[in-house]
Amino acid sequence: MNSVQVVHPCPRCGEPLRREHRLRLHRFLGYFWPSKRFRCPNSLCGWEGLLSSREMRVRRDEALASAARAVSLTPAWVFALLLMLALALLLWSLARS
Q1: What backbone phi and psi angles, to 5 degrees, belong to 93?
Q2: Domain spans in the chain, listed from the N-terminal domain onward
Q3: Is residue 47 scored above 70 in pLDDT?
Q4: Contacts for 47 with CB less than 8 Å, ≥ 6 apart
């Protein structure tokens, strides 16, 4: 499984959220509505709340798709250049021996 760290942005200010321990009430609600508790580290914002597992799964899938797009955006000519360089080095080493 791919290990892409998903950074959940704050709904108010966009700062990366930090995980917090859930309160007892949140643990109880977790039996019916799976969620995790987050807090914004920005002292001016102060947002804290729960994100459902579904919201986190959607964000994780978006992050995985984004990572896949970043890999697929590598131009084909880079691979072709590396292949030609490897072939040139191989031919050069064979010519020297």
Answers
A1: -70, -35
A2: 18-96
A3: yes
A4: 10, 11, 12, 13, 39, 40
